[in-house]
Design a protein that fits this description.
MetI-like fold; mainly alpha; about 725 residues; two-stranded antiparallel ribbon; about 0% strand; 33 helices
């Protein structure tokens, strides 16, 4: 055990030494991984490592150097059992000093006049670079390894390191931007402190009015809450319907239904809104047919909460399906067979056994649908009409004529209260209950089929919704092949040629106007997807399997990143990361970080739902046989978590491509994402190219999702289907 402790400490100390004497301490403008900085390393002092910066007068790096020396001294002179507390103290002191030093000294010197008056003028500093990031990570790992040497969590260094690093990442990429944004709410334009804006907005009747109960209009908070409840209920029921059809019926076209459920989630949100407008709007195709057949004047009913609800049902039902499919499929058939053995029919078995075991998945699907609805920006922007919701009101409060950051902060706080209340209600409902069904023992066989009184309405609803989805997507495809959508319906390929043209002169040349944003989007999405899945599922494992102080607070903090609308995330990231100590605007890193921590909660909730069905004795058996927590995670948990892994990969990849609300603030000329580019096309009236680009993205996402399916594979915890297993038996009998 001692040698293992020393080996861990040796690795991080070696990384710290390399970072302090070889890596640039401050940010490289051209990007660290471009390695262009190596050619200017000697002549440009901004590229020098920490030791060189210290020797040339950056006295603020001296405490960092001394703390690293202290850690080296502990490694040489102290036994692992005697140095744990000292390592923790060094790690905490190092992180605190880097935080204080980074926030106190800006690009032009002290950030606050009080410090300048106290200590005198000093030279400014750029944002932290690779060297500082590595040193900060080392300090965090010192805390984890010190706690392990003191026996915390049974001395499990892997678990402690995961918890420490996740806490650090959440603090940097969730709380720090929020604090930066809310701090701006209490500042005037000259930087002075004020509470007037917050007090004025928090009592605004436009937010809290309940006049709708008396025939008037409700405030934006209650409109958003009502819409979120309706959307969450509808998407959970539809997601359950499709999950049951896919796993518990003999419906002939269920594979096609699975594809249709995924289609809306791989579509940019405003495209669904435009398709609904062309189909059900005032002059829509279906509207004209209904008016001609019935003589009714339908008017502008689509624009408002009704239209937003329909669009959100189309957009978010796939999320519920992806969460529930693993839960429904993961229920052990032996439970249902035991019920039937006790003479329960299929209807009673479904009501008393199957549905209760789905409770974690249903709760998580409802919660995700609720939060997605509250944070949605694209659909309300297209179909909201005069009735806005919290996300759009926040957007216009920040970038509109109001320019009122205090109002944006108040509205964001209201949204957080709603979403966190839903999260708390879910936890109280599921607390104290056990839903484990996968025990590692030999399994009983196949799932029972749905009873007829359930199967018939379930299949009917699935077919109707599938037909509606096909109609919407037919409108989308139609728009890419016509000259002017809604006016000139003559067929053409000009939109695809202009967007994705290829020239063969002197080799392949990507002449289409959309290629640059397309390749950038694919690169960033393929990097962000596995990172999101890894962080999300690791977090789910820690939440379900580990018991550590502050676990509930930790889970709350993770859900906050998902509860915040993308608009607020984009604004907060700009305010937090546009200046030192962490300057990332205009880079790919800020986009990847935004996608990882915006989408991670879906992986967390899906992982929690799936892991709730895995008996803890599987982990205990592995640990009892001498495996470490990391090896148990790789060899036992991950193979049984394949449905959740696939769901996290698919969702994170798709959202990285289709997100718009946060991305619109974070893109740059070098890193222009597809959705931001499509919005620009729509603003310029080039609807055909926008639809053509969206259609290509849909095809690409379907291909990549299929690749993820092949890469991850399927979880095998039961016997093969009878038709697959009967063949060798029959052959043996005949022989």
């Amino acid at each position: 055990m001692t040698s293992r402790d020393n080996r861990r400490l040796d690795m991080i100390l070696a990384a710290a030494i390399v970072a302090f004497i070889a890596l640039p301490w401050y940010r490289v403008r051209s990007g660290f991984f471009s390695f262009e900085w190596l050619s200017d390393f000697v002549v440009s002092d901004s590229l020098w490592p920490g030791i060189a910066q210290l020797l040339t007068g950056r006295w603020q790096l001296l405490p960092v150097f001394l703390m690293l020396l202290a850690a080296l001294y502990l490694r040489v002179t102290r036994h692992p059992g005697d140095r744990g507390r000292a390592l923790i103290n060094i790690g905490v002191a190092g992180l605190l000093w880097m935080l204080v030093e980074g926030l106190s000294i800006g690009m032009r010197g002290w950030n606050w006049s009080l410090l300048e008056a106290t200590f005198g003028e000093i030279s400014g500093q750029p944002a932290f670079g690779a060297g500082a990031v590595v040193i900060g990570t080392v300090f965090a790992l010192m805390i984890a390894f010190g706690a392990a040497e003191r026996g915390a969590l049974k001395g499990d260094a892997f678990v402690l390191a995961c918890i420490t690093l996740l806490v650090l990442l959440v603090a940097v990429f969730v709380f720090y931007p929020l604090v930066s944004m809310f701090t701006g709410a209490f500042q005037e334009f000259d930087g002075s402190f004020t509470t007037e804006g917050v007090r004025r907005n928090i009592i605004d009747p436009k937010i809290w009015s309940l006049a709708c109960l008396a025939g008037g209009n409700c405030g934006v908070a209650w409109r958003t809450f009502f819409l979120a409840v309706c959307t969450a209920t509808g998407t959970t029921l539809l997601g359950l319907v499709f999950a049951l059809v896919a796993t518990r019926t003999g419906f002939r076209f269920k594979k096609s239904l699975r594809l249709l459920t995924v289609l809306p989630i791989i579509t940019p949100p405003f495209v669904v809104g435009l398709a609904l407008t062309m189909l059900l709007g005032r002059s829509g195709t279906l509207t004209n047919v209904i008016e001609a057949a019935t003589g009714l004047e339908l008017g502008r009913w689509l624009y408002g909460l009704t239209g937003i609800w329909i669009a959100q049902m189309l957009s978010f039902t796939p999320i519920s399906f992806l969460v529930l499919i693993g839960v429904v499929d993961g229920i052990s058939p032996s439970m249902e067979e035991a019920s039937q053995t006790l003479r329960s029919d299929r209807w009673r078995t479904f009501r008393k056994v199957t549905l209760p075991l789905m409770a974690p998945g249903l709760a998580n699907a409802f919660l995700i649908g609720f939060i997605e609805s509250m944070a949605d920006f694209g659909n309300p922007l297209v179909l909201g009409g005069s009735g806005g919701v919290l996300s759009t009101e926040i957007f216009f409060a920040v970038v509109g004529a109001q320019n009122d950051p205090a109002r944006a902060a108040v509205l964001a706080t209201v949204l957080l209260v709603f979403t966190l209340s839903a999260f708390l209600a879910q936890r109280l409902w599921l607390s104290g209950k056990n839903y484990s069904t996968v025990t590692g023992k030999g399994d009983g066989g196949r799932h029972i089929q749905l009873p007829h009184r359930v199967a018939i309405p379930v299949i009917t609803v699935a077919v109707i919704w599938a037909a509606f989805t096909i109609t919407v997507y037919a409108m989308i495809l139609f728009g890419g092949f016509v000259s002017i959508w809604g006016l000139d319906h003559s067929l053409t390929l000009a939109h695809y040629t202009r967007a994705f043209g290829i020239s063969w002169e002197n080799g392949i040349r990507w002449t289409g106007v959309a290629w640059d944003s397309f390749w950038t989007t694919m690169e960033i999405a393929l990097i962000a997807a596995p990172l999101t899945a890894a962080v999300g599922l690791l977090t789910a494992w820690l939440i379900v399997r580990q018991r550590f102080p502050g676990r509930s607070v930790f889970e709350f903090a993770l859900m906050m990143s998902f509860a915040i609308p993308g608009t607020v995330i984009g604004i907060s990231y700009i305010m937090a990361f546009n200046l030192p100590p962490l300057q990332m605007t205009g880079t790919a890193v800020i986009l990847i970080a935004c996608f990882v921590f915006r989408n991670m909660p879906v992986g967390v909730r899906g992982g929690v739902a799936a892991m709730s069905q895995l008996d803890g004795s599987l982990d205990e058996a592995s640990l009892t046989l001498g495996a470490s927590s990391g090896r148990t995670m790789r060899k036992v948990i991950l193979p049984l978590m394949r449905p959740a892994i696939l769901a996290a990969l698919v969702y994170s990849f798709v959202r990285a491509i289709t997100s718009i609300s946060a991305v619109i603030f974070l893109v740059s000329a070098k890193y222009n994402m597809a959705t931001a580019y499509i919005v620009g096309l729509v603003e310029n009236g080039e609807y055909g190219i926008a639809i053509a680009y969206s259609s290509v993205l849909i095809l690409v996402m379907i291909t990549v999702i299929g690749g993820f399916q092949l890469l991850v594979g399927e979880r095998r915890i039961r016997r093969r289907e009878e038709k697959d297993a009967a063949a060798p038996i029959k052959k043996e009998a005949l022989g």
